[in-house]
Backbone:
């Protein structure tokens, strides 16, 4: 046994959430307020108007201390205390990891991922190859962006147990994230052959999207969502599948279908932060900025992810009401701080930070360095895109063009990619190519990012 | 002990067709600039049979118990549920040919969450006989309609047509076993260890399942409905799920520990779940003999008497096909049926080791059983 686990604990502090709150207090952001339980006075939300239009009426507001979180904390205390009594109890170690994973998903707490990592390590030290622990460890390693480690573990499992579903799913996911698409396809198809399930279908859907087959991706993800229901998925899990579908629909211009799907996700899980982010995207694209800012605030109160905070900062910038400039600046300070604080967790938010910096023309050389560091490990389509976009922000349009070509070569049909490519072409004074790419991007999906969509339109208008 | 129990062991069984996915973390948006955070593949505990029990209840009835949802924590008891789309069955052979002559089938409705956070489902039980009992199908005569018992509430007992009672809901896991010790024992045995001190070093007498719950289905039926008093019957349970408009059996369980002890690879365990008892001798005979040989080798090295080849063959023929044999109306307990209080692990250790190893050090459940229906103790909350 080479892992020592801490004693059973009192309900844990949501480390990142608390840090965000502290930062927000320091910079005067409203985030600190939005982290309060919704039954507490929340003047910031009141100022921002109704949560959404009437369609959302009746949906319970999220609370920071919900029944679900109490149950998860109780589970963590239960399994960790058993493990302390019997350190070789791989069953308790595995169940503890499962509870910590659930907590991490519900709150975005990176410390919970770390604890889950230690628990799976302890389970596997006591019982090497224990299937459930392998599966959870794969999830944890992927969440912590330890993709190579996840891939290697999966390969090791599959060498011993060919066809192992835990191994196949982990191998496929790690390969997808590392840009090894052929390996991902082989693993996912094998998983699907073993048994067609929501888990296999949603993965094949993701791969189809990367392959540039959005219709097939939608079809597979729709099937995955339906399969999840048949499998009895409820709450957060069912909402997750629906949000995957909603996002795909939005990404292909079907905003009506996307809205219905995100609302269905909220019905399944009134706490769903993903559904709120999705609905906010649609509202923002429709120009209803108040209606977009409010659900983003709620999403941040549930899971304070830097990407969501960054989205809100952009909306403040677009809305430009009195005080919005300060709010946007506060949110940006928060994004930076979260990313910096999370650095110790294996640079989980590095790519997010690089894109954020590039989007806002901040510290371009740093953005390039971060994105290139990521690309050294992850040669996926988004990795090339991030480097290209950061290079453009740094004024290196020719270098950006070379890297962007690698991203486009994958074949993914995604508005953000096309927009980035179009902006690079514009910077190279290739007006014809820029027009084609930017027009394609906006025709495909004008919801991907309100600030960038505005820039795309402005650029198009200025092209010769 | 099996399925999920096997899932808990070194080479864990997986009801692969019953895979479900837990959600991933973070924004996880498909068109986002970061990774999918895709669902974790894992087994669906709701269709993972932990144990079945068959026992005499008074002079005229037989009780059948089928448990799923292993390792349900006290906090998880409130929301433990059965899989609505699944078909749970007891199969009963009354003629000694390992082919079902009677089937009791149960399905559950959607999960309703109550204001106190507990969950509830309706259920229906059907009984089929003859050829209709052999397949995995939602057919037969309806004999009971009921509602699951919410965690923390008194048992809701449904009346069974023709006599008897039915219950479904979360209860204390009646199984008791030092799984941690056994797992290390088996790993070392497979690795070739013959050192008894080493083999048994991790048995601590700790019941791995103490303090945890399962979701139980308990059915009392008249003896006449399962072959009649004195009849030798064989019982097993299955779970099937719908795939491509068909019921596909993905889980099977009879005697405790058969899959755990004798099947060593995931593929073997998975295959065993999909078989019928009539397939068992062809499928599992060599595994049983190999396991008995491995233990016999340990006994040899340690100067203990081991089984002869003929005895091993006889044991294989007793253990296979894998059905829980029961003389209707007989109260003697495991290997005659199985009562919740029976220390089946000690019995099986003894059987496999020619009486040389007799206990895992855990001899009783952590909660007292009820003397009345539904027999299993109230859940840990």
Residues:
């Amino acid at each position: 046994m080479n892992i020592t686990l801490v004693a059973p604990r009192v309900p844990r502090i949501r480390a990142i959430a608390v840090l965000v709150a502290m930062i927000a207090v320091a910079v005067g952001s409203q985030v600190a307020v939005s982290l309060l339980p919704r039954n507490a006075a929340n003047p910031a939300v009141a100022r921002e108007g109704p949560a959404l239009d009437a369609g959302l009426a009746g949906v319970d507001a999220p609370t920071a201390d919900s029944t679900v979180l109490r149950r998860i904390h109780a589970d963590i205390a239960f399994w960790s205390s058993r493990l302390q009594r019997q350190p070789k109890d791989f069953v308790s170690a595995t169940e503890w990891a499962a509870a910590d994973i659930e907590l991490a998903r519900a709150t975005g707490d990176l410390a919970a991922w770390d604890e889950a990592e230690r628990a799976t390590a302890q389970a596997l030290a006591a019982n090497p190859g224990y299937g459930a622990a392998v599966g959870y460890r794969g999830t944890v390693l992927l969440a912590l962006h330890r993709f190579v480690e996840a891939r290697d573990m999966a390969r090791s499992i599959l060498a011993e147990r060919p066809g192992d579903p835990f191994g196949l799913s982990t191998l496929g996911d790690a390969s997808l994230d590392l840009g090894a698409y052929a390996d991902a396809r082989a693993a996912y198809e094998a998983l699907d052959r073993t048994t067609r399930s929501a888990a296999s279908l949603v993965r094949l859907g993701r791969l189809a999207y990367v392959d540039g087959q959005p219709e097939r991706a939608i079809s597979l993800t729709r099937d995955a969502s339906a399969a999840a229901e048949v499998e009895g998925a409820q709450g957060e899990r069912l909402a997750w599948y629906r949000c995957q579908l909603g996002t795909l629909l939005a990404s292909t211009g079907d905003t009506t279908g996307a809205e219905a799907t995100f609302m269905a996700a909220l019905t399944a899980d009134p706490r769903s932060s993903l559904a709120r982010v999705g609905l906010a995207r649609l509202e923002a694209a429709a120009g209803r900025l108040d209606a977009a800012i409010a659900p983003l605030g709620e999403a941040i109160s549930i899971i304070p992810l830097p990407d969501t905070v960054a989205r809100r900062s952009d909306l403040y910038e677009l809305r430009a009401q009195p005080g919005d400039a300060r709010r946007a600046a506060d949110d940006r300070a928060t994004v930076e701080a979260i990313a910096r604080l999370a650095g110790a967790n294996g640079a989980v938010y590095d790519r997010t930070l690089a894109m954020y910096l590039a989007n806002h023309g901040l510290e371009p050389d740093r953005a390039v360095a971060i994105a290139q560091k990521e690309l050294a490990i992850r040669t996926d389509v988004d990795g090339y895109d991030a480097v290209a976009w950061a290079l453009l922000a740094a004024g290196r349009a020719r270098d950006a063009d070379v890297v962007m070509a690698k991203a486009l070569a994958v074949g993914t049909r995604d508005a953000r990619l096309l927009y980035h490519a179009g902006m690079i072409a514009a910077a190279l004074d290739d007006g014809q190519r820029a027009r084609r790419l930017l027009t394609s991007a906006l025709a495909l999906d004008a919801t991907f990012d309100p600030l960038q969509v505005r820039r795309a339109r402005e650029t198009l208008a200025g092209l010769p | 002990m099996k399925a999920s129990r096997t899932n808990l062991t070194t080479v864990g069984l997986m009801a692969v067709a019953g895979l479900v996915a837990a959600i991933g973390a973070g924004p996880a948006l498909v068109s986002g600039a970061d990774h999918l955070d895709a669902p974790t593949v894992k087994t669906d505990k709701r269709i993972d049979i932990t144990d079945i029990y068959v026992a005499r209840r008074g002079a005229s009835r037989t009780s059948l118990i089928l448990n799923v949802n292993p390792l349900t924590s006290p906090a998880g008891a409130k929301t433990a549920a059965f899989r609505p789309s699944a078909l749970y069955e007891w199969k009963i052979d009354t003629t000694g040919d390992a082919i079902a002559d009677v089937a009791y089938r149960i399905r559950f409705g959607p999960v309703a969450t109550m204001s106190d956070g507990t969950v509830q489902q309706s259920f229906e039980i059907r009984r089929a006989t003859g050829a209709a009992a052999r397949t995995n199908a939602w057919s037969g005569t309806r004999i009971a309609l009921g509602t699951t018992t919410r965690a923390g509430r008194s048992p809701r007992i449904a009346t069974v047509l023709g006599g008897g009672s039915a219950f479904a809901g979360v209860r204390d896991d009646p199984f008791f076993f030092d799984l941690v010790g056994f797992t290390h024992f088996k790993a070392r045995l497979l690795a070739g260890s013959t050192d008894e001190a080493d083999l048994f070093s991790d048995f601590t007498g700790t019941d791995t399942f103490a303090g945890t719950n399962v979701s139980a289905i308990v059915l009392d039926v008249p003896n006449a409905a399962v072959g009649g008093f004195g009849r030798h019957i064989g019982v097993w349970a299955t779970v099937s799920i719908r795939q491509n408009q068909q019921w596909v059996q993905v889980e099977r369980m009879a005697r405790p520990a058969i899959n755990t002890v004798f099947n060593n690879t995931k593929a073997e365990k998975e295959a065993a779940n999909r078989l019928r008892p009539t397939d068992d001798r062809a499928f599992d005979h060599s595994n049983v003999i190999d396991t008995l040989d491995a233990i016999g080798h340990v006994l040899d090295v340690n100067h203990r008497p081991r089984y002869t080849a003929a005895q091993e063959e006889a044991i294989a023929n007793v253990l296979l096909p894998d059905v829980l044999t029961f003389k209707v109306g007989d109260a003697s307990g495991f290997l005659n049926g199985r009562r919740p209080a029976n220390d089946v692990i000690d019995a099986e250790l003894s059987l496999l080791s020619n009486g040389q190893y007799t206990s895992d050090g855990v001899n009783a459940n952590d909660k007292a059983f009820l003397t009345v229906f539904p027999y299993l103790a109230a859940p840990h909350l």
About this structure: Chain A has a mean pLDDT of 84. Chain A is about 75% helix and 0% strand. Residues 67-85 of chain A form the longest helix (19 residues). Chain A touches chain B through 95 residues (CB under 8 Å).
